[in-house]
Amino acid sequence: MRNDVDHLPAAQQAELERVKKTLMGEFAQAISGATQPWKRNGKILKIILFGSYARDDWVDEPENGYQSDYDLLIIVSHSDLTDIADYWYVAEDKILRDEAVGRPVNIIVHTLDEVNKALERGEYFWVDIARDGIALYELPNHALATPKPLAPRDAYEMAQRYFDEQSGAVKKWVEVAAFAAGKDEDAANWRKIAAFNLHQAAETAYACFLLVRTLYFPRSHNIKFLRSLAEDKEPRLIEAWPRATRVDRRRFELLKRAYVEARYSASYTVSAEDLDAIASSVKRLRDVVEQVCRERLEELRAEAGV
């Protein structure tokens, strides 16, 4: 695995160095004063850059509403240290607010055992990281396992099962959202319910795509992060979300916020016009996901000879 980012402009190199230092500093703070040995001696084993900035096909067009995210895999020494809320939320928030970091940053956190078992199973997401990833930081003597090929029939059967489960769930979320959006009495609160269900539909659509394409789905409800991971694998998914205008971008943020705020915040509101536009985008996402997943399943089926 490479350990340099010389292919990136100096600005991106500096941002990644700053992000790395923030992650390591805030992690050290989070485990300081711990009494449990696994926590007191907790370590970051690796920080790996993956995705478009590792492959050198990133996009940086903020004026057009599209900018590739930094995707980082953090490998830690104990499974409990993967908890985002307990150990990584402060670092994520600090990075988000850091004006010296000009691009969005997404992190996933796993143990070395989790990653190596996935590599030994030949799961595509992890094989891609092992092949293309760049180690921004790593401790010696904690090597990644050598990826093993996944049997074509196993890959096809896993992907087909994921598609059947997740595509059916997307349909249900969209139907419930449409029911809620159609209620006239107490319409404002029903629109909030509709927005939450549309969020779930979008999240599940991304889960469907990522599981079919990569056999992996991160532990996250952040649809901006999920969108970034999915679009990195399949550019056709970009068409689901207009992002050229502030109105377009605001509507996506409304949907992103709906996971928590539509349920728990009295100040969260969504107009009928915004809800209709969001619903149209979610349905477009559903349709594109179904198309690309069916194409992928056909490829896997052919490779499996079934």
Description of the structure:
- The protein is built from 12 helices and 6 strands.
- The protein has 306 residues and is an alpha+beta fold.
- The strands form 2 sheets. A 4-stranded mixed beta sheet has the order 5-4-1-6, sandwiched between helices. A two-stranded antiparallel sheet has the order 2-3.
- A hairpin with a 4-residue loop joins β2 (60-61) and β3 (66-67).
- The chain starts with 9 loop residues before the first helix and ends with a helix.
Question: How are helices and strands ordered from N to C?
Answer: HHEHEEEHHEHHEHHHHH
Q: Tell me about the largest β-sheet.
A: 4 strands, mixed
Strand order of the largest sheet: 5-4-1-6
Which percent band covers the strand fraction?
5-15%
**What structural class do you assign from the helix and strand content?**
alpha+beta
Number of strands: 6
Tally of individual helices: 12
Give the averaged pLDDT, no decimals. 95
Low-pLDDT parts are: none
Helical coverage, percent range: 55-70%
> Terminal Cα separation, in Å?
35 Å
Outline the secondary-structure elements.
Elements: H1 10-31, H2 37-40, E1 44-50, H3 52-55, E2 60-61, E3 66-67, E4 70-76, H4 84-87, H5 89-96, E5 105-111, H6 112-121, H7 124-132, E6 134-138, H8 152-181, H9 187-214, H10 223-233, H11 246-264, H12 272-304
Parallel strand pairs: 4-5
Antiparallel strand pairs: 1-4, 1-6, 2-3
Helix pairs in contact: 1-5, 8-9, 8-12, 9-10, 9-11, 9-12
